[in-house]
Amino acid sequence: MLAIGDELLSGRTKDRNIGYLADVLTLAGIDLKEVRIVADEPVDIAAAINALRARYTYLFTSGGIGPTHDDMTADAVGQAFGVPVGYHPTAYELLEKHYRQREMDFTLARKRMARTPEGALLIDNPVSTAPGFKMDNVYVMAGVPAVFQAMVNNVVASLPQGPQILSAAVFCPFGEGDIGGPLAQVQAKHKSVVIGSYPKFDGKSYSTELVARSRNEQELEAARLDIEAMLIAVGKEKAGSSPA
Amino acid sequence: MLAIGDELLSGRTKDRNIGYLADVLTLAGIDLKEVRIVADEPVDIAAAINALRARYTYLFTSGGIGPTHDDMTADAVGQAFGVPVGYHPTAYELLEKHYRQREMDFTLARKRMARTPEGALLIDNPVSTAPGFKMDNVYVMAGVPAVFQAMVNNVVASLPQGPQILSAAVFCPFGEGDIGGPLAQVQAKHKSVVIGSYPKFDGKSYSTELVARSRNEQELEAARLDIEAMLIAVGKEKAGSSPA
Fold it and tell me: Name one Pfam family in it (chains A, B) (predicted).
């Protein structure tokens, strides 16, 4: 994913789109492999698009497709693909009709939202009409969370769904330092399962959430049982030689 | 910045460190230019570190320096710099003392937290002892937000502060499409000021927050006045020929 916008890098806006896309893709069995955030700089946007679209099956972008001068994504995508950018006839019609119905001027600024690189297919915007677009394996969507979410829901539903990634969470009352060694052994035994270890700190002491993830239910369950057995063993060891 | 961790890409954890660092850097007058999020894959981490440390003045990382098998950042940094990774004597001592005082075992897993690439300088961890480290212009910090924040506060305070970026926000009751044209003219007139336009959608209609940013107070103020004059003109135009 590529999130675009100065406001994300200045701290003014705290991004909510990355986490949303991550959730939706996980449910669809598609792995999110990398995210980048770049400023409203066409050269930087184009470079990131080319790096990511070459490397991954899909690239999803958020932001920079509105009507103002700092909305540069359509031009940057055109630059990345080496194609001209102009009004997309269907997008133009949709927007023209949208504003006519509302008795609002279809200003030059609003017309910017109809601009796409040559060859783009539109992505429906059920919230506020101005469409996103798809070029090859790149899905260009709005940055406003309500619109991004609606576009993502449509786009991801249209992609081939992978086998869903299943996960099992096991609460561990000990800190990571108590379990790091034996947990690495459990991980080494279950190579098709990815076990994550997430420390929690309540201000005084650590606990850990252990999360096993796999596309295979049996293997996941086997790993989960071994994690629980490991926790019981660590707990006994910590209790040491104290009589029961 | 580079945020490291499978959990950020699966949606399990919603990142809070990017926004925090963005805020702190903005206050310090340092521009955050790019963020990447990668999984717990040493090759990917090392590649991102090398790309970002070559391109920018500083690189800040979060995550992957704990005691478990999925904490791979120290090794990835060593790989990126082409240096071996081993116990840092001061870090080892600090941690040994920390656990001895708490009558906790200094397990092999906990010892992992003393591992740094050769030549690293430590970053103090006032929250839970296990230090971060600095290699050249790369600051390697924890992913747990309380610890990341404490480390960032120390690190950023130690950097030369830039002239602070000042900002002025102007609420615009119209959608971006109404102001995109004239706003671009204001932007063209004030080249040393960056004007951002942030649409807000309340479910029915759009408004816009306009934010001008500059390191020069006079130029910022001049741009702000022109934005306000532009909004008055647009408002009059929208009211059209209706009698006052």
Answer: FLAD1_M
Q: Does the structure show a pLDDT above 90 at A160?
A: yes
Report the C-alpha gap between A30 and A163 in whole angstroms. Answer: 8
Which tokens in the block code for residue A154? 């449509």
CATH fold, domain A2-157, is: Molybdenum Cofactor Biosythetic Enzyme; Chain A (3.40.980)
pLDDT tens across A91-116, in order? 999 999 999 999 888 999 999 999 99
Interchain pair A66, B181: CB under 8 A: no
Nearest to A7 among B69, B144, B196 (CB): B196
Residues of A in Cβ contact (< 8 Å) with B150: none
**B132: β partners:** B123
Residue A194 has pLDDT above 60, yes or no: yes
Q: Which of B70, B185, B194 to mutate to test the interface with A (most CBs of A within 10 A)?
A: B70
CATH 3.40.980.10-classified regions of chain B: 2-157
Nearest to B12 among A68, A147, A211 (CB): A211
Chain B's closest residue to A239, CA to CA, is: B104
**Second-level CATH architecture of B166-239:** 2-Layer Sandwich (3.30)
Q: What is the mean pLDDT of chain A?
A: 94
Average pLDDT, integer, range B211-236: 94
Residue B239 CA: distances (Å) to CA of B59, B207, B231, B233, B236 = 50, 17, 12, 10, 5
**Contacts with A204 (C-beta within 8 Å, 6 or more apart), sequence order:** none
Question: B143: closest CA among B66, B72, B207?
Answer: B66
Is the CB of B146 less than 8 angstroms away from the CB of A178? no
Residues of B with CB below 8 A from A198's CB?
7, 12-13
For residue B23, give the DSSP letter: H
φ, ψ at A79 (rounded to 5°)? -60, -45
CB contact under 8 A, A15 and B19: yes
